[in-house]
Amino acid sequence: MIKEIIKMKLKSASEYMRVFLKWALISIIIGAVGGVVGALFHQSVSYANTIFSKYDMLILLMPFGGLLIIAMYKKCNMLQNRGTDSVIESIRNGKSVPFSLAPLIFISTVITHLLGGSAGREGAALQLGGSIGSNIGKLFRIDKKDMYMVIMCGMSGVFSALFGTPITAAFFALGISSVGIMLYSGLVPCLMSSLTAYLITMLAKIEPTHFELIFVPPANVLTILRTILIAILCAELSIIFCTVMHYTGRYLKIWFKNPYIRIFVGGLTVIALTYITGTRDYNGSGMNIVENALLEGQADNWAWVLKIIFTAITIGAGFKGGEIVPTFFIGATFGCALGRLIGFPAGFGAAVGMISMFCGVLNCPVAALILSIELFGSEGFILFAIASGVSYMLSGYYGLYSSQKIVYSKLRNEYINADTK
Question: What is the distance between the alpha carbons of residues 184 and 181, in angstroms, rounded to a whole number?
């Protein structure tokens, strides 16, 4: 009897080890490919932003760049593809992500940044990663029920390569599709993929995103109350941002049914707004503005409003890119301005605003908390934890990605399985 039990346990341990080795190999391969592609994507977008900063008259070509983007997507029969939403849906339904999505989103995001569109790169990274992971999964003949795992590995890898935040990348992929639960079966594969991609970018000498905050206030009662206030207002702002993004895209499609006309008009509108504001601060990703808010405590009081408008028109019209860096911009400038108003250190207020907005629009409190450590260090951990929790609870059932499912209520232990608004 004892021999039989030992034999069964050894067989079980052998099976676990076999599965571990299988996913270790696959996730490292996905992470390596994601790291190389992510590094190239990072350099390409950075180079595009550098060229635009030197030759900002390129913005006059934005409508024509938009026509090229639509033509490429139409040629590949991808006009109806929902981008990041499609990738998130693939995690739940096990469907593969088209291979053509990777080169399309890569090229079109570079075009958007080169010509002054207001967009980030991380949303594009999720699409790149999903496509890479899905197609490597096909190569290894991964079963349909395990397809979600390779998609999450791909998302983790490219996200990690772009930001240099491997732990955030893994937990983000684990929790993005179904809010309220985490797919812990993917923890080891996602971590291996994101860490492999991170090491690739280190070899490529790409510096991870990190900010040295000038001052982190002590976690006393007054500081905690001010942090809660910023988080509450950022939660409401995240609802506004998500609503504006969704409705802008929806109404532009109603008003301009032809995608070529829609993106051309969108490009003209961004040009007009750029010349009306008299600055290029709201074109591109705007990471320089984020840095000023965090490190210098300097930001225009209404910069966050203009960034919402620029980003909603750019993405809603059909240009490609991510929404996460614009979210950072909005959170940092809002938190900086609000911090000055309430007597809170402006730079730290910007950091709290960034983390609160990230959590509010993506519904990922664990990833937001880990992000705060990877971006700013652990000194303000308690305050960032409070900000993440408050923002998550009060941001309602809204989100940048409409394919997200709110599986469990944010207010009680109740299964609701609702779509984000």
Answer: 9
